[in-house]
Amino acid sequence: MLGLAMIANAVLAQNSPVQIGFSGPLTGASANFGKDLEVGARLAIDEANAANIVIDGKPLQLTLDSQDDQADPKWRCKSHNGLSMRTSWPWSGT
Question: In sequence order, what are the beta bridge partners of 68?
């Protein structure tokens, strides 16, 4: 429920698509797990976009921002930091 409220706030604050961040092992020894997770996230986003959801008169359009952490803790930190640096939260002023 909190996730939906955060998406709704983002939609109300901007007209651009809402980016959903994903970080997982897309390459390397664990890539099969990461790719399955990424496909699941894409399917969920596609279903939400196909539902033509409207919040306060504005259409909800979701996109997926995938980052490869290579199943390596050092890369995981880098991919998470990369996602957070591209995030603009309505309440943060960034």
Answer: 24
